[in-house]
Amino acid sequence: MKIVAEIGINHNGSVEIAKNLILVAKAAGCDYIKFQTRNIDLVYSKEELDKPRESPWGDTNRAQKQGLEFSLKQYKEIDKFCKTQKIVWFSSPWDIESVKLLSNFELPYLKIASASLTDRPLLRDMKAINIPLILSTGMSTRDEITKAVDYLGDNCEYLLACCSSYPCKPEETKINMIKALKNCFQNHKIGYSNHSPGLTFCIAAAALGAEMLELHITLDRSMYGSDQSSSIEPHGLMKLVKHVRDIEKSMCDSFNNFWVVHESEQNVKKKLRKL
Question: Could you tell me the fold of the domain covering 2-272?
């Protein structure tokens, strides 16, 4: 299983916070780092951006949302840092200009956020740069997912079961959607995007055979930000990755090996069995 540590916007516009989170993910044994990338003038209307909102960056939505975005120069610094730490990053572009920005880097994937699943112009441009795509399926019907998958074709490598509530209730986690996606989209790898602050549902996803696990991480859930409360802190991330890797080991036996007595069992068998 590939484990994606989503920093998203939990860096709060600080490259230093992002670097600290990268170090946390690397130490825990995650495979990838993920961000979110937006040109706010393309993603949001002027009316939305002009609304009042108190934040560390000012008193409007525009100030808050712009404060959470990295520039090309900042991404280049992050890219260099990830290379020194030997961990790979990618992002979810929310608009066409962000796709262009991310095309400056050699990324293993681009992620299509659940909100963008029906954005055909954006999907077209993401498909055109010929990088493998990961599709999150939150707040989507089966028909919407099928249309997106059919349009993306071979460019779409992973589908992630997901609920787009932050944080989501236990009954809304869509854990069993992993099995449904496996049945419906047998030519794709199936994973899970977690929006719950605990470890429970990530562990359940691993047990159900998810091939990718994406989860939000934070230095402190009490920090400013809309995604912090649904994120996992460093100590939790360390535990989670260990649990997931142990589950992987427990599920690696082939069917034939179920009927084999392990060498570690032989002495116990000899001692306790009555013939």
Answer: TIM Barrel (3.20.20)
